[in-house]
Structures are given as C-alpha cells and as structure tokens.
Amino acid sequence: MAGVVPNKSIKTDGSKEPLPPPSPTYILRGAESPVTALEYTEPALGTLLSGCQNGTIHLWDLNSRRNEETFDAHNGKPVLYLKSEDASRLLMSHGRDGYFKFWKNVGPEFELDGKIEAEGDGFCPPVPLKQKKLTRLIALPGSDSVVNIFELNSRSLVRTLSSGASSGELGLCMCMCAIPNLAGNDESLLVGYESGKMILWDIGTGKIQHQAPVHADAVMCMAYSSPEFNKGLSGSVDEMLVAWSITEDGEIQTVNKLESTNAGFNDVKIRPDDRIAVTAGWDNNIRVFNMKSLRPLAILAYHRDSVHCVEFSENYMLAAGSKDHLISVWDIYRQV
Question: What is the pLDDT of residues 252-261, one digit of tens each?
C-alpha cells in the first residue's frame, strides 16, 4: 500500500507530533523495463524524461501524465544519465553501451546529433563541469579507474584523470559529482571508486587534490550541496550513509555517519535549497533526511522493488524510478 512510514518525529522543528503519512501525488506507468535515470525539464514545459534498463528514453507529459514519446537510445543497454537543455532543444544521454549521445528535438521526435565514445561500460553516470576557459565539459568514466574529460562543443578529449594506481587498487569508477567553489570559477571533480575510496581531482591540472577511504565498500552514489552549505552525502552497499565536507584546503572530511535499517543505496539527491536529501534504496524505499542534522524524516514506501533513481524538480517535486517499471511523483516537505 502506498504511503510513508513515519519516524517518531518527522518534523524539522524538533516537535514529536507525527505528520499524516502521504501517498505519491501520482504514478507514471508505461515503461517496459526498470527505470534507471530521471531528468526534469524546465517547469514551464511540464515534462519529465526517464531512461530505462532496456535502453529506451521516455518523455512524460506531467499535465496529462502520459508517455508522449519513446525511443531506443542505447541499443538495449541501460540508460545511466539524462540532461536536457531546453533553450537549444538538446538532450544528452549516456548508457552502458559506452556512448554519450546528443539528441536534437525535432518536432515530436528526437534525432541523433552526434556521440562520444566513453570507453567504459560500467554503472557510473557522467558529470557536467564548468571551467573558466572551457565552460562546457563532461566527465565520462573510462576503462578501469580512469576518467576522461571532454569538451562538449568540440566533442574532443581535453584531459585524462588517472591516479597511476593499479586497477585493482581503486577498482571501477562508481559515481562522480562536481564540487564548485565560492568564487564560481573552476569546479573540481569528486570520484567514488569500487574500493570505497573517494578522490578529489583538480580538473585544470589533472592532479589529485585529496583522497580518503570514506566507505568500506564500493561508493554507489554521491551528491554535493552548494559550497555555502558545504555538505555532501554518499552511500555504499552497506547500511552507512556518510556526510562529508570539503575543507578550505581541499580535503575530504567526514563529518557524520548514519546507519540505515537496511543495506544498499542506489542514488542520493540533495534538494536545490540544501534543506532536504533523499536516497533510493535496495529495500524498495525512499528515505528522506534533514540535511542540517542528517535526521531521518520519513520513509516513502510505495515501490515493490529496488528504487534505482531519484530526482528533484526546480519547484521541489520529487520523482523516483524503480525496478518495478514505475515512476512515483511526490509532493512532500516543499514548505520546509
């Protein structure tokens, strides 16, 4: 049954009175395989993009709540990443077929407008980066523990990040996130590896800024807030959700750990206002946390199988995609 399993206190003001358990606002049905990636487009357009394990991409009209367009983007391989640039009507996707692809929205359909070979065929989605001189970069996982940085306009390789360690020491790149600075200039890249280690890379020089063994096992997902709030979250295959920050000296510093009831995190997202974070769990549930205290707020219990991905819209609506082929959309804590 849809709903939320509340904690004794699920308010952020410290009161003990539980809020009534909400259900999803609505469910999007029609995907023919597990949902593996989500992307809201501009709110005015009222659309949501989803990628699936069978390589298809779906365009959902959130007003009619119907699937408006479906196409095979990655030759039957799981879609790991979606990014929409509405002003240029451009869609970018990355899949386990090893390609980062550009799609042009022509009328109701999407046409292939180029691609980059990413070398790697693991589970790590790419990450866009900003630099003063090259403002449109994408970090793509390569073979083993290597990360390749491409310039999107020219679609050319500009840098390779390699620690020089053996592939067995770090393992595969599992997840990445951009680390902006307060000056709004060059961004660094934080990479989580199969070994549980996290490395902060200087994109301009290609050198390691800092590295730390944050998890005991593979880093499955990570997210970072704004630099003003300066807190990130990462999850692994075990029960531990770890909060960390980046010091002024560019070091990764663990600040808190929270042990979840069940093991396994597929995804974590921090809301744009840095107040709420959500995780996608192997146990079919979505967990909601207060970012300041890392206090659990609620467990959103709807899906019948592992939740693969979560995503916030600009107006704080939450979407979650699951192995059960469904997308749940939630309107919770938007006033928090």
Answer: 999 999 999 8
